[in-house]
Design brief:
Length: about 450
């Protein structure tokens, strides 16, 4: 009997196989069942919907009736009976693999080939069925090329069925007996699974050898089979993410297959799924969300998060809080245009990016407004003084194409000078000092700020 996992993370599955499905002209779907074999959920993939001319769940709901109602009258009874016979055959001998005519939303009735694989519990009751749906209308209509079409269809089905094994590893674990039944497994796990030790010892040994050190302790706690049943009391699933030595980020998932009278699992399905690409995409999206597009500095959202961090955690003794402001930016925008103003903003960024001394190991620069920037550095006052001198030396030498010079006002508050103040109070002092610097600049230039 072949068993597959009940797919509890359909969104991740679609992201990983959607392009291949479309290239092969196929669409995936899956359904889940309770312990009594009753249907509990239906999920039609977006590729499936697009193949038959529908947009999303609003016009093709996640219901079995969405499919049944659109079957051709000649095929409906046969296909429905085959589906339920396959689901209810606890011996797993009945295979759901058939062809039929189906009413699409944009091209009328077309021929399709469908196949499904059913995952079952030890007693034979269904856990889930994962299936694929292939458009074979052209092949049906081209009688002279039926043989070639059948060969192509067979190859596509072979590839598609292999996609049903979407997990890096999958094992059924009997927590009472300690038995592990393997359904799929990465090659790196083989040597540990073959050892003549208990399931709990195997799991511990695997996590110690395949998870990177910084995640090892949490992975060991998560996969501790001696405490799993109690930790999953009343829960259907338990999931967590870790980083593997061989896989990068992976999702580990326990699914309760059987439970005792107190709701504690006695049999669980344990699966791991590689999600490294998804995590990298999430990281890119996160960086975009906290980065200012024009300067490449962290944005206001990141600045507020940094303040919140220091509100909850100790402030380093060598923290230096600096507020920067570009003088006369509004005047430049009004008289020379916004392109000139943008040149000043980018000019400040280019200068600040040169200052490795100012940035230090933990230094960060934020763009908090149009012409306002904040630097939070971890440097001694002496180190900061050297960096500040270098910074204003670059400022004095800067020349633009649209604007001749740039003038920067800055204000600083060192934690060492104000050891009793919190981060918001340090920010306020730095801001006040910046405005003092700005006022002195306008006074030297004989400029009335209300006219700028």
């Amino acid at each position: 009997m072949i068993m597959e996992s009940n797919n509890y993370d359909e969104a991740d599955m679609v992201n990983e196989v959607e392009l291949l499905q479309e290239a092969l002209g196929s669409g995936a779907w899956n359904m889940t069942f309770d312990q009594n074999g009753e249907l509990t959920s239906v999920n039609w993939s977006q590729v499936f919907r697009r193949m038959i001319g529908y947009k999303d769940e609003s016009d093709f709901p996640n219901k079995l009736s969405s499919f049944i109602d659109r079957l051709h009258d000649d095929d409906r009874e046969r296909v429905v009976n085959l589906y339920w016979n396959a689901v209810k055959d606890y011996t797993d001998r009945t295979v759901y693999d058939t062809e039929y005519k189906f009413l699409t939303n944009n091209r009328g009735y077309r021929w399709f080939h469908a196949a499904g694989r059913i995952a079952r519990r030890e007693n034979g009751s269904p856990i889930s069925i994962v299936g694929f749906f292939i458009d074979i209308d052209d092949k049906k209509k081209l009688e002279e090329s039926l043989k070639a079409a059948d060969e192509e269809k067979t190859e596509q089905l072979r590839i598609l069925k292999s996609l049903a094994d979407m997990y890096y590893s999958m094992h059924l674990i009997n927590l009472r007996t300690g038995n592990i039944t393997e359904y799929s497994s990465g090659t790196e796990l083989r040597e540990f699974l073959d050892k003549k030790i208990s399931a709990a010892e195997k799991m511990r040994l695997i996590m110690e050898n395949v998870v990177v050190p910084q995640f090892r302790e949490s992975a060991l706690k998560f996969t501790d089979l001696t405490t799993l049943s109690e930790r999953m009391r009343g829960l259907k699933t338990l999931s967590s993410e870790f980083v593997g030595i061989y896989t990068g980020w992976f999702l580990a998932n326990f699914i309760a297959v059987e439970t005792d009278n107190e709701g504690c699992p006695t049999v669980v399905l344990f699966s791991t799924q590689v999600i490294d690409e998804r995590k990298q995409q999430e990281h890119v999206l996160f960086l975009r969300s906290v980065t200012d597009d024009m300067t490449g500095f962290l944005n206001r959202r990141a600045y507020e998060a940094q303040l919140e961090y220091y509100r909850r955690n100790p402030i380093p003794e060598n923290l230096v809080f600096t507020v920067f402001d570009i003088n006369q930016l509004k005047h430049v925008n009004d008289t020379l245009g916004h392109a000139a103003g943008d040149e000043l903003i980018c000019g400040f960024a280019s200068i600040a990016n040169k200052l490795k001394m100012l940035q230090g190991k933990n230094g960060k620069v934020f763009r908090t407004g149009g012409d306002e920037f904040v630097g939070i550095f971890c440097l001694t006052p002496e180190q900061y003084a050297i960096g500040e001198k270098e910074f204003f030396n670059h400022v004095s030498k800067w020349r633009g194409k649209l604007v001749k010079r740039i003038a920067i006002a800055s204000g600083t508050a060192c934690r060492s000078d104000y050891p009793d103040l919190n981060i918001d109070e340090l920010a306020k002092i730095a801001d006040q000092n910046m405005y003092t610097s700005k006022a002195e600049y306008y006074k030297r230039k004989g400029i009335e700020r209300r006219h700028i």
